[in-house]
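Dear Dr. H.,

I hope your travels went smoothly. While you were away I took the liberty of generating a structure for the chain from your last submission, since the lab meeting agenda had it listed for discussion. I wanted you to have the full record in hand beforehand rather than looking at slides cold. The sequence, exactly as received, is reproduced here:
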Amino acid sequence: MRQILPPAWKQKIRNFFLDLDARIDSTLFSSGKGLRELYERYSTFMDRFYVGRWKRWVFIEPMSEAATIGLGGLILMLALAVPAFRETADDDWLKKSDLAVSFLDRYGNPIGSRGIKHNDSIPLEDFPDNLIKATLATEDRRFYDHFGIDIAGTARALVTNAQAGGVRQGGSSISQQLAKNLFLNNERTIERKVKEAFLAIWLETRLTKNEILKLYLDRAYMGGGTFGVDGAAHFYFNKSARDVTLAESAMLAGLFKAPTKYAPHINLPAARARANVVLDNLVDAGFMTEGQVFGARRNPAIAVDRRDENSPNYYLDYAFDEMRKLVDTFPKSYTERVFVVRTAIDMTVQRAAEEAVENQLRQFGRDYHATQASVVVSDLDGGVRAMVGGRDYGSSQFNRATDAYRQPGSSFKPYVYTTALLNGYKPSSIVVDGPVCIGNWCPQNYGHSYSGSVTLTQAITRSINVVPVKLSIALGGKSPNPAKAGRAKITEVARKFGLTAPLPDTPSMPIGSDEVTVLEHAVAYATFPNKGKSAKPHAVLEVRTGTGDLVWRFDRDGKKPVQAIPASVAADMAEMMSHVVTEGTARRAALDGIPAAGKTGTTNAYRDAWFVGYTGNFSCAVWYGNDDYSPTNRMTGGSLPAQTWHDIMVVAHQGVEVKEIPGVGMGPKLPPPALPGSVAANGAARVLETKAGPPPVLTRRGADILVRVERLLDEAGKTAGKTSSIDPKQSGKPVTSGALAFPENYVAAAGDAPAPAQRKN
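The corresponding predicted structure, in token form, is as follows:
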């Protein structure tokens, strides 16, 4: 480089860098000098405002600290407010909860409604003055004085609750409660309360006080499936909210706190007690005098008796949830919020399902120690014809058909056998029923015995546990972990059937240890009679606006069934499962002249009892058990579940063209019932088919009761001057004739299990 550049250029470059260095040094020196002079001038100027001694510590320092803390608080509040304000991102926030749906059955008959309807049909000024005062006195006395958060009311509630050692008084204002209803849920978390506070202030800046109060009166849940005071007034008192009396207003205002607990159609004494508290609040708040509320105390409100009304509430809740998801798929430009929906429900089948469940639980629930049940009946295309989510909707709105995950037991095995048929097995394939272990887990058959070589048809008919486990291992092939690989194949097939439950990979999964819902289980079984096509469960068939315009129709816009398994495999499985009904563990489910197939299921300690079956027309799943997972008294899937399924299917097929099941045909016709003591053609005594009864065990208490009744009858006979037909010396034995004879179904229940019983079913 030195040889390339001329000597003169070298000197110029050296001088350039020297000049640049000098300029930088001069600039830095001048800047520093200027800054020092500027700081000195600023200090001289600020010295004029210097405050010393006590004035500094009394005024200046606190103000400085307050400014610092306030700035930090503002930053923190902004960080907390951002998640809350994201809830308001939807431009349609005022209407997003505003959905009113009237439901019809599959034939167009009204069956109920869900949701709320926000309009000006009842302006705020038309609500009775006593209703407004009762609401404000109970929910937010300082509503018109605060900015969305009642600081004094919140502090008072904290003190009251601290003194009581529990939650005795709520501190949320009406604005906060409306914010929760519009944007949030009911979870009790600090995050929700923070969001609620910010959203309440946000609402106060967007709406007037009267608009907030009107929305609150229209949007609050009031129990009985109603929203808003007007809907509640119609439901509880058969009148408009315009016409409610003071006593009725007090009862309505008392519902805001706990609508399910204080609903008068469920617990009228509690509702009246709560209404009396509201009347006390009116007097304490100074809105009314004791003389004005005296008449309402002496003459409390009388609610309409709704106990005999049998609306399909579990079904309506399910259909409304489906409708809300469906509306979210509509274009954003679509603003209609009032709909009329035709559903797949058949009220005849629905009533039959409810009555069958109630009858079985009333007769045998106590004996079996079973308190709850759930039923789903569906078409082969997934349309839900009937749904029972529990025994009593009034006491519990939890839907056990859609939201409860329970172990299916042996009713899960058809998915295992289907996977086997898809991988080269046949119904006649032989598998050895013998000991097998996966790690430390060794499944056992019911009775702790083995049957040796059995076909797949025999294994599913007798509900053998070992065979599905061996199949899961064999399906894994030559993989490093064949059992795990086999279970992965089973899970994949179950997904094709439509099961969306988690189905965790456990060694006991092939015999039903993973949890499923009754709804998905029922519709998944419809794949077998539907020639291998799986369908999605649905309640909505048709959606129209309030004016009658068609918006959505399932056969046009809904999800079509998809081919999950080959039709030949579905037919083979149907043939195998038909033996469970005709000669296996579900003989109580057999239908005369109607082909049927299915599978029973019973879990460990008899906690869950299932029967899931199908005909050529319908699929149906029945579950019995307890909400607290406590064991039943040896209830099996072949007892109450199978009998309930039978009773429902008999009604469901009335007036319906019976279809055959592919692979089964029309099935065998049941022999006519024989009279007691009659003899069959082969000389053997015929056994009369019996319905489900209590467990085949006579408890000590039951025997004592029978003995006591016997003695009473004996004494009554002697008093009448008649000789007892029962030998007093034999009074310690249960009576077996006359009025005290055991019910026939009670005695026959002992012979329910199939001959070589292999599993609890």
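Two observations you may find useful: Residues 673-690, 722-761 have pLDDT under 50 and may be disordered. The first strand starts at residue 100 and ends at 104.

With kind regards,
E. W.
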